[in-house]
Write a structure and sequence with these properties.
The protein has 146 residues and is an alpha+beta fold. It is built from three helices and seven strands; from the N terminus they run βααββββββα. 19% of the residues lie in helices and 33% in strands. The chain has a five-stranded antiparallel β-sheet, covered by helices on one side.
């Protein structure tokens, strides 16, 4: 990830990743039309979904196969903001793929520069449909190893 304090560009954009973009919707903003801090977690989710599609599987397929990936940890760093109507770009990649845990890393940048405005990660644990922690199912392990 980039280090905003030192203005170092990220290497995530250069790696094989999923990049998705859309426009900030009015409902995601506060009274000043600035994107509310919690909306970035929804943006992260959109990035994860796009990454799964780019790997050839839909994120909903995890649940359809009898497993879930609940979030166990979130980290978000805000160094800039977006406003209503801005185009949002999100890069997402899988940065950790362990037997029971996966981590996705995100960078959000705006329409006029390559400066990262928000960065972070989410950690997820594999569970079965009843919520018991389990090892990564073989079909998903193979997909994430690509």
């Amino acid at each position: 990830m980039s280090d905003p304090e030192n203005n170092i560009k990220s290497k995530i954009y250069e790696d094989p990743i999923a990049v998705t973009d859309f426009y900030v919707r009015y409902a995601e903003t506060d009274a000043m039309r600035v994107v509310h801090h919690a909306a970035y977690l929804v943006y992260f989710e959109e990035g994860r979904s796009e990454l799964m599609r780019s790997l050839g599987r839909d994120y909903a397929g995890i649940e359809a196969s009898g497993f879930m990936l609940p979030v166990t940890e979130v980290n978000v760093r805000y160094v800039g903001s977006l406003v209503y109507g801005n185009q949002v770009k999100i890069s997402t990649r899988l940065t950790e793929n362990r037997s029971r845990r996966v981590t996705f890393t995100y960078e959000v940048w705006g329409p006029e520069s390559d400066d990262v405005l928000v960065s972070g990660y989410t950690r997820h644990i594999w569970t079965n449909s009843k919520g018991a922690v389990t090892r990564v199912p073989e079909q998903w392990q193979k997909l994430f190893e690509k």
